[in-house]
Amino acid sequence: MQNTVTPTHCPYCALQCGMNLAPAADGTVEVSERADFPVNRGALCGKGRTAPAVLASGVRLTTPLVRSPGGALEPAGWEAALDRIAEGLRGTRERYGADAVGVFGGGGLTNEKAYSLGKFARVVLGTSQIDYNGRFCMSSAAAAGSRAFGLDRGLPFPLEDIPRTGCVILVGSNPAETMPPSLRYFTELRENGGTLVVIDPRRTRTAEQADLHLAPRPGTDLALALGLLHLVVAEGRTDERYIRERTVGWEETRAAAMAHWPEYVERITGVPVPRLREAVRLFCEPEHAMVLTARGPEQQSKGTDTVSAWINLVLATGRAGRPLSGYGCLTGQGNGQGGREHGQKADQLPGYRKLTDPGARRHVAEVWGVDPDSLPGPGRSAYELLDALGTDVRALLLMGSNPVVSAPRAAHIEQRIRSLDFLAVCDVVLSETAALADVVLPVTQWAEETGTTTSLEGRVLLRRRAIAPPEGVHSDLYVLHELAARLGVEKGFPTDPEEVFEELRRASAGGPADYSGITYRRLAEENGVFWPCPAEPSADGTPEAGGPVPVGGGGVPDGGGLGDASPDTPATSPGAVAEDPVRTAAPRAGAAVHPGTPRLFLDRFATEDGRARFVPVSHRAIAEEPDEEYPVLLTTGRVVAQYQSGAQTRRVDELNAAAPGPFVELHPRLAERLGAAEGDPVAVVSRRGRAVAPARITTAVRPDTVFMPFHWAGEGRANTLTNPALDPVSRMPEFKACAVRVEAVRP
Ligand code: SF4
């Protein structure tokens, strides 16, 4: 063994921090600093640092489980478990038709898994009913970005641009808790003389560091953006030349903004007019500025319009598609970006192609070796798919998701899942959703498998296998390979992730998210490559424009290669660290390759005429405003020591010690009205259910609002309360605001 240290990336959030893994004395792996990866420069949060704890055999699944006639999940062999799944899926299809079988994926799956899952649904099952939990995460920003710029990539510029801009408006984002190592970009921004404006109903740890914090009522940031745009126009701060030369549709958008007087916006949002003016001054005075959004504005029943309102502000001030300026979305899940590009979304084919586009269907069908007419059309969005379980959709294959905790109106969704004829779940641990399955398959995880992810920057990264999986554990790719064979498709589902990636490259070629110029070898050598990266270098120019660059060095064959990458190749020994044959290889001398595209839109937007689109939007209320019965607003979010539904992080002692359970954050005035003291159990009740958790009394939250983190199951499950009202464009549920009442719980 040559290498004892494997450079790789964290399994959790979209920052995809670089880390080194090395064998530990106890047979697991140890995390150490990987200073050569520029995004986090060695820094990790507690989740990343403790991630190996979930590799331990006492924590994770190591044998398939099959539900017995008596109703219990019992250990079984792989052959029997796979046979049972194939039988469940085939039987449902035969009885009720192909669309009675659903597939639900996750934003944590690697690109290879997401690609294979989408192909499996359309080619093997022939179902249109596939979507994934990333729909709950960034879909409103994706929809708004696509309609404004013609293309959606979380950040159209690297994080390294943030410290060099003049002002950042951070809307509904709390990186201090969600991705702590990224906070340094905002700290450096301020050290360099720039300013940070945070818009959040809560005074979060991020808001505490801001030069200006605006705390609107939850669900009113669309009005806030319109109020800022109104002031920009009224104060003569628009960039008329930019609007003329690089945009379309300004007049209607201008008119919509002018209908939102600052005083009217103050009444809607609760943010005083002088603070609106101060935000406009901070944003407009510097030469460069950015707006970054996250789940706050996006997880609303008007999330797409809310993000459009922020993009309109960026366009009107001439900030998009210019160096050190622009609009970006801070994506959330580890592969939230790549997961939505390669075909597990209901309406998409690989390469971010549209399933409704005949040319896209032809291209992908040719790569897949099938008739384009055999590909089903778009299916239901995530919530709609979950809501159809047990009725239209009778069997479900689920990978990398835990909707019993993470879906809105979770008690109802749990009932829908329980009413399925058949449920198969592939997971690392026995999550709350896996516990309801007929068959559970134990699958490999980050350190035990090679694969690619795409970070919030649009940087495609190589996560490398560092340790052999425990005996009895296989990869998701192996599961799809075996199921496809059992369902009559012998070829087209390789278990080697690099082989899958090579096919993904061809399927994505020519699409908006073009990965065809990216190889495993390049990813290993270059610390990631930004898409789009076509196979053929263009004739013109600079790396920023997407032209060819020569790469030096010598002696690498085409195509790259990580021959030992498949988790289903025989393991060396537990705790062994895989050799990486490409670490020391250098690119071929003089070869011209596309350099990737760190910065998008500098010359033109990805629309037909190259101009960005203003989209006129107006304020509208959240789907469920407070009333006499439910007089308080609930908003939900995260804490630093837990991740998403907590399926992995709730199994890590150190993280549980830091964040042991749910809580209800409420203002002292509300607590006094209830007669609740710190730590007292309080009940939060919405039209969908009741959750109980200890009170955490703080002035960080508005008096008309309570906050709950959503990482836990049981009686403190925040998503029991949340409203599944959907955005009409993105089909994103309104996680961020619903009407509740709060009650003291008496013994
Ligand atoms: Fe980095 Fe996110 Fe992992 Fe924390 S959870 S170490 S911020 S990638």
* Major sheet description: 7 strands, mixed
Number of helices: 23
Per CATH, which architecture of the largest domain? 3-Layer(aba) Sandwich
CATH topology of the largest domain: Rossmann fold
> Considering DSSP H and I runs of 4 or more, what fraction of the residues is helical?
25-40%
Percentage of β-strand residues: 15-25%
Q: Give the terminus-to-terminus CA distance.
A: 62 Å
Q: How many structural domains?
A: 4
Q: Mean of the pLDDT scores?
A: 91
Q: Helices and strands: which structural class?
A: alpha/beta
Give the class-level CATH name of the largest domain.
Answer: Alpha Beta
Bound molecules: iron/sulfur cluster
Overall body shape? globular
DSSP strand count: 32
Radius of gyration: 25 Å
Major beta sheet, strand line-up: 5-4-18-17-16-6-7
Unreliable spans: 540-590
Structure notes:
Residues 3-59 form the 4Fe-4S Mo/W bis-MGD-type domain. Keywords: 4Fe-4S, Iron, Iron-sulfur, Metal-binding. This is Molybdopterin oxidoreductase family protein. Residues 549-563 have a biased composition (Gly residues). Residues 335-355, 537-579 are annotated as: Disordered. The structure is a single chain. This protein has 747 residues and is an alpha/beta fold. It folds into four domains: 6-55, N-terminal domain of TfIIb (Single Sheet), CATH 2.20.25.90; 65-136 and 355-511, 3-Layer(aba) Sandwich (Rossmann fold), CATH 3.40.50; 139-330, Dimethylsulfoxide Reductase, domain 2; 632-744, Barwin-like endoglucanases (Beta Barrel). The chain is 28% helix and 18% strand. The chain is built from 23 helices and 32 strands. The strands form nine sheets. Strands 5-4-18-17-16-6-7 form a seven-stranded mixed sheet, covered by helices on one side. A six-stranded mixed sheet has the order 26-28-27-32-25-29. Strands 10-9-8-12-13 form a five-stranded parallel sheet, with helices on both faces. Helix 4 packs across helix 13 (303-316) and helix 7 packs antiparallel against helix 10 (262-269). It is globular, with a radius of gyration of 25 Å. The N and C termini lie far apart (62 Å). The model is unreliable at 540-590 (pLDDT under 50). The structure holds iron/sulfur cluster. Residues 10, 12-13, 15-17, 40, 44-45, 47-48, 179-181 line the site of iron/sulfur cluster.
